[in-house]
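Have a think about this chain, C-alpha cells included, and walk me through the fold.
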Amino acid sequence: MRGDPTGLRPAFSIRLHVPDRSQPFLFDLDGTLADTLGDIAASTNHVRAQWHLPPLQEGTVREFIGHGARALLQRSLAELQRPASDSLWDEAYECYAHHHQSQCTKTTRLYPGVREHLHYLQQNSHPLAIVTNKPERFALAVVRHLGLDKVIEVVIGGDTLPQRKPDGAPLRTALRRMGCAEGAHGTMVGDSETDLLAGRAAGLRTIACIFGYRPEAVLRAVGADLFWRAFGVAAETFPGN
C-alpha cells in the first residue's frame, strides 16, 4: 500500500497481544470512504419531483453534500423560497428518508484502496470510527452493505447527537465510545471543510481527501496536516505535485 500515513511499516501482521491501543482514525463517509453521490442525487431528485421541480445534475447535488440531509434539501429546493422554520422542510425530509431507505445502497461503492487500507490499520491495532453528517440509519445501512462493519468499531451519524460536524462533539463521542483516553492523539480523515474544522476542534490531526466532493481550493484554504489525492495516497507522491 502506498502513502502510509501512520508511520508504520507497510507490512501486514497480526498482533497477538497489544497492551496499549494505537492512535485512532476517524473517517467521514460520503466522498471519503465511499462514492455515494448517485444514491444521494436520486433521492434528492425524487423529492424535487414531488414538488414539480426538474431534476438536478449530480454535479450540482455534489456541491450540497456535507452538512446533513436537511441542509442538502434546503439547498436543493431553494427555488421554493421557504424560510428555514417552514413545515415544508419536515415534509421534504420525510419524503427523502422514505425514498433513501431503499436507495442508499443501490449505486454506492467504496473508493479504490479503502478496504485494504482499513484492514491494514485494523491489523496494526488502530481503533477505527466513522463520523458523518449523514443520518445514522443510512450511514449504518451503507456501512453494512459495504462490509465495513467488520473493521469499523463506532458509527456516529448527523442525528446521533444534538451537535454535528464542524462541531468537535461527534468526534469526541466517537473517541470515548472506542475507549480512547481523553486527549488521545488521533486523525480525522474527510473530504470537506466540516471534517477538517471538526478535527481541529477535537484536537486531532487532519487529512483532507481532495478526491472527494469539495473543491481542492476550499480544502487548501481551510488547511490540513496532509492531503490525499487518492485514498491513502498523499498528493505529494504524484509526479508534478
Summary: Residues 88-103 form the longest helix (16 residues). The first strand starts at residue 25 and ends at 27.
